[in-house]
Amino acid sequence: MEKEMELDLEGLAAKIKELAASVRTDSNPEELDVLRKLIKKNVPFMLRGYFSAYLLRELTRKPQRRERPERAAKKEFRKPEKPVQKEQAPAEKPQAEQSAAPAPRKQPKVLPEGAKTLYINLGKMGRIYAKDLVELICADTGITRDDIYMVRVHDKYSFVSMSEENCNKAIESLLGKVIKGRTVQINISNREKKDQEAKPEEAPQEESAE
After folding, report:
1. Which of 52, 66, 180, 209 has its CA 20 to 30 A from that of 199?
2. What's the pLDDT at 209?
3. What gap in Å lies between CA 188 and CA 203, rounded to an integer?
4. Residue 78: how many other CB atoms lie within 10 Å
5. Closest Cα to residue 169, out of 188, 153, 150?
6. Phi and psi torsions of 150, nearest 5°
7. Which has the minimum average pLDDT: 48-52, 107-111, 143-147?
């Protein structure tokens, strides 16, 4: 019988928190929503918690290499080899090759506690981009660029994350305005409200933007 795996509970807890933060700031929530529906369809409700625990255990388990029987037999009858001379350390790579190494991947930005996400019905198809949204929100509201945590622009709509107070200011300032021929609809993201009401196994992913 295999020895029971020793669990690093503190390390796993830190990993879970890191993954949870990444979920809230994922750049492709639509893809996550498709996978969530796939799991909901194929995993019974009572097993979803265990399903998540099983995935976490399998992802964190170190793979064990098994040696083939014929290789083990060859090792037993192999003749002692002559001592191998130490190889010289390889020369350092030129500075140009070192600089060509890929830069480390930027970690997703974690939203501060209490942050809210706005839905705005303006996007790329209406020639609205992140810079335009920032200028619209900052105009006549007292909000600065530093007050805006994240902005993500889609084809027909966008998401902007700020403090709840600044979200309310933006709604009061922009709701009903006509921007490039389109009447602005702006409100707190419905997905965020669903997150608070749904069960943990079925909570949809919150939109946040960069």
Report:
1. 209
2. 42
3. 17
4. 8
5. 188
6. -150, 150
7. 107-111
| AA letter at 75 | K
What's the pLDDT score for residue 21? 79
- CA 105, 24, 205, 137 dihedral sign is negative
Exposed / middle / buried, residue 108 (Cβ in 10 Å: 0-12, 13-18, 19+): middle
Give the SS3 label for residue 158. strand
Q: What phi and psi values does residue 120 have, to the nearest 5 degrees? A: -130, 130
DSSP conformation letters of 73-135: HHHHHPPPPPPPPPPPPPPPPPHHHHHTSPPPPPPPPPPPTTEEEEEES--GGGT--HHHHHH
d(CA 189, CA 152): 13
Among left, alpha and beta (phi > 0; psi -120 to 50; other), residue 185 is beta
pLDDT for 172 beyond 80: yes
**pTM for the full model?**
0.41
Q: Name residue, tokens 């098994």.
A: 66
Reported confidence tier of residue 27, pLDDT bands at 50, 70, 90: confident
Residue 161: which of 175, 147, 171, 174 has the closest Cα?
147
